[in-house]
Amino acid sequence: MGRIEQVLSVMRTDPTRLWAPAEVSREMKTPPAVANSAMTKLMNRGQLVRPQNGQYRLATPDERAAHLALPPEPVVAQVPARPVPRPPVDDIERELLMGQMRAQGRPVSSALLAGRLRRCGFNLARTDDVLADCLDRGLVRRLDDGRHEVAA
User: Fold this and answer.
1) Whether pLDDT at 69 is above 70
2) Is the pLDDT confidence value at 93 over 70?
3) Distances, alpha carbon 81 to alpha carbons 59, 60, 91, in Å
4) Are residues 97 and 142 in the same domain?
5) For a 10 Å CB count at each end of the chain, is N or C smaller?
6) Which pLDDT value is given to residue 73?
7) Does 64 share its domain with 22?
8) Are 21 and 36 in contact (CB under 8 A)?
9) Does the residue 83 lie in any domain?
10) What does the alpha-carbon distance between residue 135 and residue 101 come to, in Å, rounded to a whole number?
11) pTM of the complete model
12) By the 8 A CB rule, do 98 and 139 touch?
């Protein structure tokens, strides 16, 4: 006989009584935590009712039927967050990007730059913003293969 069946057999000795987990555990000769976890599982299944904290009783047939008839929780569609406006690119950010590109000494992909600039506190979106700003200013040029190099 499992713990749940033991709890039910103890509680069926007096079906209308309010039982505390400590009382049930004393009857079962187990620690109170064992009875408490079994009683919580039974309550979640609808076989026990908790009229007040720490007190359980057997559920009536009507209460069990009402518990089984509860509709499932509705699934709520995740509402996408509104885009947050990003601040304009600073000169310091441009210098950090240009310094990384000069240190590399060869054309680099935006993913490589993002990895290098992550150490400076840039996230991927910010790296893309700074790179786009540098492209607009003519400091960087984009090659046919998608990599970027410092404009001469």
Assistant:
1) yes
2) yes
3) 44, 46, 29
4) yes
5) C
6) 67
7) yes
8) yes
9) no
10) 13
11) 0.46
12) yes
